[in-house]
């Protein structure tokens, strides 16, 4: 009997924590969202870089509470509500966005890793179905979630939450209020593949899409925990709330339990010492918006936007890698420092890649 009980406890422990946590973004070491204000380029502390947001106070865009987490996520003491309001315009752009970036020197962009998070919406301040939203994305947009009407698609609105590789929909479901969607991106940076794991509520993650080829490009400081909303003429802003829980990155075998793994020593939070922080230079625009070529359960028509309007290039100017280099209303460098080249994404954004 004792052996049976011990075996059960061991099996349960293994089912909860199968991998090794590389970075822990579950907000366990934060007393409130105002802790994000402690981070700066000169003082890179805490689990997140906080610079992509509007001009109001941090609590206009990020708030923490036990009420904001998936109840099945016992590894998190609280979750985050990330908000877009009428001030959520970063750095003079015309796209609303609130995003957090992992602050870590861990090898989250090497080998085979799993990027975990849970996401939920409510009927109150629901994300608009009439605009494209890019969620939990990388700068090169090789994989991400999207919601709402997809740029270039026919029709007016789209109720789906979808997972994409390179802007192409590989999985989708109707995004219903009050349902927690548990997600893991299975990324093999060496093999250049990405797969998709998913469940709802308290159910264990299962693989929905087997690893497929992708341009897995990341510098380890470009995964965006948050949302970017593309502009659309004729559709006014409204407040939107996105609820996040169980955000962490692990290597090894995937943790399929939504309860999540135990916290590592120190909670995976970087200190201000040089040995535990990454100082990555940032230009005025660090994030590209995704391709308008879209595959949808609502419509299977794919469209490609025309070439972007490009402003006059400043004399002798070359944008650094990862920087914006073209787009409507853009007035910066339109050539890139070698070896990067300017890659078209859509009419609003091209990036040095």
UniProtKB/TrEMBL annotation:
Swiss-Prot/TrEMBL GO biological process terms: polysaccharide catabolic process
Keyword check for Nucleotide-binding: no
Record bears the keyword Methyltransferase: no
Keyword terms, alphabetized: Carbohydrate metabolism, Polysaccharide degradation, Signal
Signal peptide start and end residues: 1-18
Record's GO cellular component terms: extracellular region
SMART domains in the cross-refs: fCBD
InterPro entries in UniProt: CBD, CBD_sf, GH131_N
Name of the protein this chain belongs to: Feruloyl esterase B
């Amino acid at each position: 009997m004792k052996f049976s009980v011990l075996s059960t406890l061991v099996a349960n422990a293994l089912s909860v924590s199968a991998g090794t946590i590389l970075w822990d973004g579950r907000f366990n070491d934060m007393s409130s969202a105002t802790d994000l204000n402690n981070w700066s380029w000169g003082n890179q502390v805490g689990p997140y870089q906080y610079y992509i947001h509007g001009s109001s106070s941090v609590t206009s865009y990020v708030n923490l509470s036990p009420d904001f987490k998936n109840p099945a996520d016992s590894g998190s003491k609280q979750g985050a509500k990330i908000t877009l309001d009428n001030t959520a315009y970063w750095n003079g752009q015309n796209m609303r966005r609130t995003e957090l970036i992992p602050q870590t020197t861990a090898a989250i962009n090497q080998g085979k890793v799993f990027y975990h998070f849970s996401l939920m919406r409510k009927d109150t301040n629901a994300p608009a179905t009439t605009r494209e939203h890019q969620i939990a994305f990388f700068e090169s947009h090789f994989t991400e979630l999207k919601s709402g009407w997809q740029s270039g698609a026919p029709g007016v609105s789209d109720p789906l939450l979808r997972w994409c590789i390179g802007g192409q929909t590989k999985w989708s479901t109707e995004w219903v209020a009050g349902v927690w969607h548990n997600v893991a991106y299975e990324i093999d940076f060496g093999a250049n593949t990405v797969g998709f794991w998913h469940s709802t509520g308290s159910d264990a993650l299962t693989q929905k899409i087997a690893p497929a080829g992708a341009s897995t490009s990341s510098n380890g400081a470009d995964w965006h925990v948050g949302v970017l909303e593309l502009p659309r003429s004729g559709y006014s802003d409204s407040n939107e709330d996105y609820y996040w829980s169980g955000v962490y990155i692990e290597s090894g075998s995937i943790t399929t339990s939504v309860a999540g793994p135990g916290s590592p020593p120190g909670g995976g939070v970087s200190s201000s010492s040089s040995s535990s922080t990454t100082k990555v230079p940032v230009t005025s625009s660090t994030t590209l918006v995704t391709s308008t070529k879209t595959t949808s359960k609502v419509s299977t028509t794919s469209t490609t936007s025309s070439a972007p309007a490009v402003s006059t290039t400043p004399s002798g100017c070359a944008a650094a890698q990862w920087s914006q280099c073209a787009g409507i209303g853009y007035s910066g460098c339109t050539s890139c420092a070698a070896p990067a080249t300017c890659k078209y994404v859509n009419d609003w954004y091209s990036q040095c890649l």
